[in-house]
């Protein structure tokens, strides 16, 4: 297994520390591509097989599939999301997929990338449960592949990379969301792709510095023009644009990792001798990075609203006086609140203007889109205040799996019917429960605490990716705990929890290839954790996949009263 010890730790241990040139040049060619890619693809194919298994069951709209599956079908056939008939769900499940939409635009509160991806599955396989879920299954498996490759690059170990991918594939949140037509698996996928691009850019940037410099920098800024073109940052900006185009919460990791890119670039320049690297890198690296990540991301994000922009007149006519911007006041926990004040019948400014033509029409549509965004922002930040939901939970307890989400349930199946073999006086049930695999999340808490120590105390940048990723995808939710929010939002955090776990395993095993007591103990502990996670996932399999259970068997899996 290649070494996973960082230069700072090596120096403190009295080992010979490679120069900045040696480290920068070595990372780009440190793996056998055939073995690395073959193993990673194998793990991803296993994940895909598990996610496709009986994907069309249960044959119903599970949880928020009732919104996104129909929105996707409308996008596919009309170019924008239309509202639908009251009995559309029953009609669609009966095979009647036409005549269910009434032509008026629907006030959707999330961007459209994820729904377009769901629509691809519906286009290929039809408007049925398998069709609207298959895109999530494919993207979930691709996410496992990206996880393998990210950790392989960060550690130099194909074994650790595949372990990370396996752990991700065995988590219940990831598994169930990969079998549902919800948006969060797409959000998590694009965010992980973006972070992977930034890690690749870190290596690319340092290798480029090493090629450009023949000696230590004694004055000046170091290479500038040769480092303006950063292809991995460009791809990262595209991925972040698609992530934000799925859900706005991707803005937080975009900001956090944007700062980290600047600091990584400054650290690279410092290692090659540049003085005042943080300030100098802010100009020569930070500003171009802002262009690649923010400007490119913004362009991609706006482009994802093309269907909306083409039909902006429909939205101006029907939704420019939407309820989300009308006067709303009330009391919440004893405090009065005001959502927004708007005169009755007042429209968006652009909606009251005469229709423009040419480029002016695009500008008018963009201003309407801006007004629409304002309405959606009001909805997310105020409209749901003090409302409640059975499965809502506080984000402060999400790492502990405080409250899972029931997305489907078929209860009170009597003995002797539909395969139920429960004893007399009991019954059977089927359930799909959105909950993480406990070993991963509870073990992940310890790994994250160690990651903070390793990043701050030992200056291991890899643990910083886990810490920043977790903080930027989890902590912002604490600002919104006065509205219904749900545990499964943490699927965006999951890759960084898995990263912390895998890096901790690498540290336990150590860099030495020769058998030692420390290595043997590390292998035993790490291997036992992976096996325990596999068994934990298998134990929860029936409540991940709508399996038939007796009431007693179900209670054996629902460990706490808050999980019911």
List key phrases describing it:
564 residues, mainly alpha, 3-stranded antiparallel beta sheet, two-stranded antiparallel sheet, 7 strands, globular, disordered N terminus
Describe the structure in your own words.
The protein is mainly alpha-helical and 564 residues long. Helix 10 packs antiparallel against helix 11 (231-244). Among the domains are: 65-127, no CATH class; 196-326 and 340-384, no CATH class. Mean pLDDT is 89; it is low at 1-5. A hairpin with a 2-residue loop joins strand 3 and strand 4 (335-338). It is globular and about 75 Å long. Helices cover 58% and strands 6% of the residues. The chain has helices at residues 7-12, 20-27, 33-52, 65-78, 88-93, 113-125, 129-155, 158-169, 172-177, 184-212, 231-244, 251-271, 277-303, 306-310, 312-319, 359-383, 438-458, 461-474, 494-509, 517-544, 551-557; strands at residues 82-84, 101-105, 329-332, 335-338, 405-413, 428-434, 548-550. It has a three-stranded antiparallel beta sheet with strand order 5-6-7.
